[in-house]
Amino acid sequence: MHWDDLRVFLAVARHESLSGAGRVLKLDPATVGRRMQRLEEALGTTLFVKSPQGYALTVDGQRLLARAEEAEQAVIGAADELADKAGRLGGQVRIGAPDGCANYLLPQICARIGAENPDLDIQIVALPRVFNLSKREADMAIAVSPPSSGRLTVQKITDYQLHLAAHRAYLRRNPPIRSRADLKGHRIVGYIPDMIFDRELDYLDEIGAERVHLASNSVPVQLAAIREGAGLGIVHDFALPFAPRVVRVLPEEIALTRSFYLVRHADDRRVERLNRFAAALLEALPAEVARLQDMTKA
What is the pTM of this model? Predict the structure, then answer.
């Protein structure tokens, strides 16, 4: 049995389809299918049950999955040891994050980490949803709620603040806002209610709003709408420096605090490359949040 066959097997097991595995491996789905058929013939057993819903592991497939993941960790560990001996952090790290964090925090943080480690390739996946680390969608993820299930390790990174905000032009052309009661009748920018993927992002009750007049599942799209004067919305304080004429509204009355958590697969604690990247992230992200939030107070 070759490692390359196990690599293909892992991709099919994690993505539960030939097409999903093919996208990750950059192989034609038919080629992936032939590789799995060849592996099953070599082992003399059936590894997957095929159905219209996808590829599900058999009992023997589950057994092989555990061994294949051990082999994967061994290969990754060996590569990391060689890179470490050369005095550099190399290879690839993929980090998933909510799109607010991915747009306004991770680019500058990862740019600095990358500059210090020229052999390291960093991939930032910005998606407004929860990442599935068991399917290896990312090596690690930043979340706004700590997961309660799965073989995961979770570390709190930092708290961050959010406030109601609007563009100065919107505030000039609309009735003044001196209290929560004055918010009635103002237009609200926020999340599409049925696409909120984490309860920590449901801000409507906290600002007393009953309706979202302009909605998006994307934080940058919401901020862009607020910047264009579309209405009031909850904005991360660390994003305000990227929208200079957007200002906080009722900051003493409406102030929210949320947290970022670093989530990793439990098996990856032996991967030195990921440990070192995580350590750099845990140091840099709180500092960057603090720096940007301080700019809004100036």
Answer: 0.73
